[in-house]
Design goal:
There is one protein chain. With 146 residues, the chain is an alpha+beta fold. The chain has a domain at 51-139. The protein contains two helices and five strands; from the N terminus they run ααβββββ. Strands 1, 2, 3, 4 and 5 form a five-stranded antiparallel β-sheet that branches. The radius of gyration is 32 Å and the shape is rod-shaped. The N and C termini lie far apart (128 Å). The relative contact order is 0.15.
Length: 146
């Protein structure tokens, strides 16, 4: 009876080998898809970083042209920047917020406040930076001349 049981197990090695091959194939497919998604994530991160730096370049352009409130846009290689928020499709003017005082200065001096929004775009990724800038001191027009 013992010899009869051994003869019936000749195909077991083939079945075990096929199951192991199936498991290894599934592990290989899983690692390939994981690698594919990781490369997409790193590509999106690179595009996002490039869009952020394009927006930062747009902020620098906007701050350099203050107190002029004109719209602006420009290319930076594959990236572009423009003044304004992400939602509208065209550049928008910079925003004058108003005058303010500052500690250490008397009422004869004021600082002008501006808001600079810049949007950068790179390979479909968009980033926006908003900066508030105070410029001055300027004469507040309250000095009395003798």
């Amino acid at each position: 009876m013992k010899g009869f049981m051994l003869r019936d197990q000749k195909g077991v090695a083939l079945i075990v080998a096929l199951i192991m091959l199936l498991v290894l194939t599934l592990i290989g497919i899983s690692s390939i898809s994981s690698t594919f998604f990781e490369s997409k994530i790193s590509g999106n991160d690179r595009s996002g970083a490039a869009a952020f730096y394009a927006a930062k370049g747009g902020v620098d352009v906007g701050v350099n042209q203050l107190p002029n409130l004109n719209v602006y846009s420009g290319p930076l290689g594959d990236e572009t920047y423009r003044s304004g928020r992400m939602t509208p499709g065209s550049p928008q003017p910079l925003i004058y917020i108003g005058a303010m005082g500052r500690s250490g200065y008397d009422i004869n001096w004021e600082f002008k406040r501006y808001q600079v929004n810049a949007t950068g775009q790179s390979f479909g990724a968009m980033k926006e930076i908003e900066v508030q800038v105070s410029a001055g001191p300027y004469s507040a027009g309250t000095q009395y001349n003798n």
